[in-house]
Write a structure and sequence with these properties.
Largest sheet: 2 strands, antiparallel
Strand order of the largest sheet: 1-2
Shape: globular
Number of strands: 2
Radius of gyration: 25 Å
Number of helices: 20
Oligomer: single chain
Order of helices and strands: HHHHEEHHHHHHHHHHHHHHHH
Number of domains: 2
Strand content: under 5%
C-alpha cells in the first residue's frame, strides 16, 4: 500500500515540475523519506520488549496531552488548522500520533484484573481518555477531522461488551440530524410546520414502538401507544379543517405523551429497558430541536460543507469545489482508468490537496473502477487480518489494543473515501499508507507495528 501510494503521489505531482521523482524537492521524493523512516520505525517498534508498551502507557499519554497543547503556540495555522509544529523544513502533527497513544492508555485501563465492562459507569474513565485529546484537537488545534476519528473507539467498546443501545443512539442521532437539517426548509402544504421536525418526531416514536413490540413483546401496551399517536394526529387533522394547526407542536406533544406513557410503564413494571426507552425519546426530542437551533450557529465553513453534502446549497466554486472535482475525477476514470500519469483532472490540478486527503481521486481517474476495487480489496483483507490477530490474543491488553487499531483504520478508510466520493462532508482525514505526509505515515506505522509486537509475544504471555 505504501508503494502504490507513492506511485499515485508521484503521478499527482509529477506534472508540476521536471525534477526527478527521487528529488527531495518533490512530494514523491519526500514521501520516500517518510517510507524509509516508517520502515526503520517498524523495525524498532517490533524489537522493543512488548511489556514496555503496557508499563509506559499512562506516562506517554500524559506527556502527549501536553504536546497537543503546543502547536497553536508555534504556528499561525494552515487553512484554519493550527495542529502543526514546525521542525526545520518539516512540520509535525502530534494529533496523528495521539490516536495510538490514546489506544495504549485505554487498553491499559480496561485490561486491569478487576475491570469488567458491564455498564455505563465502567465506560466513564475510558471515555475521558479519548474525549480529552479529541477536545484539544478539535477546539484548541481546530482540526475537526482528526478529532472525529476518536469516535471510532466506540466500535472497540462494543466489541468488549458495551450495550448495542449506544451504537443505536449514535445511528439515530445521525439520522435525526439529517432529517431535521435537510427537511427543515420543506413546509407542509396542509397545516403549519416543516417536514424536518415532524419526520424526526415520527421516527422517534416508531423506534419506541419497535422496541415495545418486538424487543419487550408488550403487545397490549404497543397497541395503546399506537392508539395515542393515531388519536392525537387524527384530532389535529380534523381541527385543521377549520383552524390551521401547527403540526410541529402536535408532533412534539405526541412524542412527549409517548415518553410519559413509557415512563409510567417503567414505574409499574420496574423495567430498566422501558426507562431507557423513555430517556431515548426525551433525549432525541431535545437533540432534534438542538440541531435546529444550533446548526445555524456553526462556523460558516463547517455549516456550508454540511449544506453542500445534504443538497441544500450549490457551491461548485466554493466549499463544494473539492467534492465536485473529486466526483468528476473518479467518474471520468471509467472501468479501467486513463492510465498512469494520464489523468486530465490530475495533471491540470483541478482537485486541491490531491496528493494528501484526496489521493483516492487519482486512483479512480487513472486506474478506474478496477483500481479502486483493488485498493478496497486490499483494505478489506488488511482489516480482516487485523481482526483475526485481535481475536487470537491471549491477554486483554493486546486484544483491546488490537481492536482499537482495527477501529481507527476503519474510521480513516470509511471517512476518507466517503468524503471523496461525496457521501460525507469534506474533512481532513488521510487515507492510510496512501496519502502524502510524514506524521500520518509514522502514526499508522506506530499503530500497526506495536500491535504486531504484542501479537508476536502472545505465546510468551500465555
Amino acid at each position: 500500500m505504501m508503494f502504490l501510494g507513492w506511485l499515485n503521489i508521484y503521478s499527482t505531482t509529477s506534472h508540476e515540475t521536471d525534477l526527478s521523482p527521487w528529488s527531495f524537492q518533490t512530494f514523491s521524493g519526500k514521501q520516500i523519506v517518510w517510507i524509509a523512516l516508517a520502515i526503520v520505525s517498524a523495525i524498532v517498534l517490533v524489537l522493543i520488549d512488548h511489556r514496555t508498551y503496557d508499563v509506559v502507557a499512562y506516562l506517554i499519554y500524559g506527556i502527549w496531552i501536553v504536546i497537543l497543547l503546543l502547536p497553536p503556540l508555534f504556528t499561525t495555522g494552515v487553512k484554519g488548522s493550527v495542529s502543526w509544529i514546525p521542525i526545520g523544513p518539516f512540520r509535525f502533527q502530534p494529533a496523528e500520533w495521539a490516536k495510538c497513544i490514546t489506544a495504549l492508555a485505554i487498553a491499559k485501563w480496561m485490561s486491569r484484573y478487576e475491570y469488567r465492562l458491564k455498564g455505563w459507569r465502567d465506560l466513564v474513565v475510558p471515555i475521558i481518555f479519548l474525549i480529552v485529546p479529541a477536545i484539544i484537537i478539535s477546539v484548541w488545534e481546530k482540526e475537526t477531522g482528526s478529532a472525529l476519528v476518536f469516535a471510532a473507539f466506540f466500535l472497540m467498546f462494543y466489541r468488549e461488551g458495551m450495550s448495542g443501545y449506544v451504537l443505536l443512539i449514535g445511528a439515530a442521532a445521525v439520522i435525526l440530524f439529517i432529517l431535521v437539517i435537510r427537511l427543515d426548509v420543506v413546509q407542509l402544504s396542509w397545516g403549519i410546520g416543516n417536514v424536518g421536525i415532524i419526520a424526526a418526531m415520527v421516527l422517534i416514536m416508531f423506534i419506541a414502538l419497535y422496541f415495545l413490540l418486538f424487543r419487550l413483546e408488550l403487545k397490549k401496551e404497543s397497541l395503546i401507544l399506537t392508539g395515542i399517536i393515531i388519536l392525537t394526529y387524527g384530532i389535529s387533522c380534523i381541527i385543521n379543517i377549520w383552524i390551521p394547526v401547527n403540526f410541529n407542536i402536535i408532533s412534539t406533544i405526541t412524542a412527549t405523551l409517548s415518553a410519559l406513557f413509557t415512563l409510567v410503564l417503567a414505574i409499574l413494571y420496574r423495567n430498566r429497558d422501558l426507562a431507557i426507552i423513555t430517556l431515548f425519546i426525551v433525549g432525541s426530542v431535545i437533540f432534534s430541536f438542538g440541531c435546529k437551533i444550533l446548526f445555524p450557529k456553526l462556523p460558516n465553513h463547517q455549516k456550508q460543507r454540511i449544506e453542500v453534502i445534504l443538497g441544500l446549497r450549490e457551491d461548485p466554486t466554493g466549499v463544494g469545489y473539492n467534492a465536485k472535482q473529486a466526483g468528476i475525477a473518479i467518474g471520468s476514470g471509467g472501468i479501467t482508468g486513463k492510465g498512469f500519469r494520464n489523468g486530465t483532472q490530475t495533471s491540470m490540478k483541478y482537485v486541491p490537496e490531491q496528493h494528501t486527503d484526496f489521493i483516492f481521486t487519482t486512483i479512480g481517474e487513472e486506474w478506474g473502477f478496477m483500481g479502486t476495487f483493488a485498493v478496497l480489496a486490499l483494505y478489506v483483507a488488511f482489516i480482516l487480518r487485523l481482526i483475526q490477530l485481535s481475536e487470537r490474543q491471549k491477554d486483554m491488553f493486546s486484544q483491546i489494543y488490537g481492536y482499537c487499531v482495527v477501529s481507527i483504520f476503519i474510521a480513516h478508510i470509511v471517512i476518507n473515501i466517503g468524503m471523496v466520493i461525496g457521501l460525507l462532508p469534506v474533512v481532513g482525514i488521510p487515507l492510510p499508507f496512501y496519502s502524502y505526509g510524514g506524521s500520518s505515515m509514522l502514526g499508522f506505522t506506530m499503530l500497526l507495528f506495536i500491535f504486531l509486537n504484542l501479537d508476536a509475544a502472545r505465546v510468551e504471555k500465555l
